[in-house]
Amino acid sequence: MDITSLAVDAGAFINRVVQYTEEALGQAEKTQLDSRLESLLDRAESTKTWTDKIISQTERLLQPNPGARLEDKLYKGLDWSAPQRQGPHELLSENMINAALELGQHTPYGSTLVRCGELERQISVANKKLLQSIAINFLSPLSRFTDEEYTVIQNERRQLVNKRLDLDIAKCRLRKAQEADNEARGLNSNPAGEDNISNVSYMFSFLRVRWLKMWAQEVSQAEMELRISQSVFERQSEITTLLLEGINTTHTAHLRSLNDFVEAQASYYAQCYKLTQDLRTQLTSAPSLVCYNNNWHLAANQPSTSTLPLVTIPHLATSSTINQATHQPTKAIQATSPKQPMCPGNQPILST
Predict the structure, then answer these.
(1) Low pLDDT (below 70) residues in the chain
(2) 168 closest CA partner among 40, 18, 10
(3) N- to C-terminal Cα distance for the chain?
């Protein structure tokens, strides 16, 4: 370990802290950055802030459970593979299929449960592909900017602040060196008088000059350090500016990632719509549902004898007796009526 290097770094750090404190208290002048550089710095900071918000909200959209998100971050920080979790569609699929197995999968209700469970399973598979696509094509590029690219920007920005503080320290040293040199010249041009007051004044001025000379450098040395600090600061400003101009390239990359995000969502929702529409067509054209619908309409439209007047009930009984005796009207009706489709159980479907 180089003790001299550590001492130099510690001294530079202390000088920067003193300079920064004096600037904050308004006791020292501060070199202002270029307006374009300030604008680029603000733009990079805004990009970082909003990128973090977009990433956070997208993660909430993909995983609404905060406990699961925290667990995923923990596994990611430890560089471990996160355990596989069942999504809500997959859990619903299992519940529907298990219900069909227990209630009877060959019944109309059970077979429909099996079909709906298979639909939820296919939606779960599509949802996993959506999550994977968004994580790779959208979240990863945005996270790469916040974790890597912006870290480099922050390092260069920190270096720029340090070089700016060093420049202001050099300016302050030159100012103090010039002040001490001017007072020394004035003291030499005005020697002490014969009276006591002049001697005391000369003594205080002499001590002040010695004090300034103790803490101030020579003017030539201070000027040389100022030129070096100015050159280093300008070089660091150019490096930081070139790096910040890359924000436009970052925005272009984020735009492509955003298009991939929209494309993944469009494909997912289109696939879900097609799956649900296909199942809907199958269910609406299933014979079991047609029979159930027609039987429900028949039960709803058939009059109940419990609500008919007493005079009507004998009339219905007489009509039934006449039909049983003759059998002719019934046969005529059967001969003229079209053939009706049959439901399971050999029950004809009565049209309403």
Answers:
(1) 1-2, 183-217, 286-352
(2) 18
(3) 98
The SS3 assignment for 343 reads strand
How high is the pLDDT of residue 289?
53
Confidence at residue 173, expressed as pLDDT on a 0 to 100 scale = 83
- Structural domains in the chain, CATH included, are 98-277 (1.20.1270)
* Closest alpha carbon to 279 in 94, 92, 111: 111
Is the distance from CB of 126 to CB of 272 less than 8 angstroms? yes
256-274: b or e for each residue (b if 16 or more CB lie within 10 Å)? Answer: ebeebbeebeeebeebbee
* Gap between the Cα atoms of 140 and 14, Å rounded: 40
Helix (H, G, I), strand (E, B) or coil at 79: coil
CA neighbor of 162 nearest in space, from 352, 12, 23: 12
In this predicted structure, what is the pLDDT of residue 56?
93
Q: How far apart are CA 76 and CA 69, in angstroms?
A: 10
Cα(73)–Cα(78) distance, integer angstroms: 9
Nearest to 10 by CA among 237, 136, 321, 18: 18
Rg of the chain taking only CA atoms, in angstroms: 44
pLDDT at 216: 57
Task: Write the Ramachandran bin of 340: left for phi over 0, alpha for psi from -120 to 50, otherwise beta.
Answer: beta
pLDDT at 188: 55
In the structure encoding, which two tokens stand for residue 317, read together? Answer: 């009984």
Put simply, whether the predicted model's pTM sits higher than 0.85 gets the answer: no
Distances (CA, A) of 269 to 71, 94, 113, 289, 311: 28, 22, 22, 28, 62
How big is the CA angle at 10 (ends 6 and 12), to the nearest 5 degrees?
120
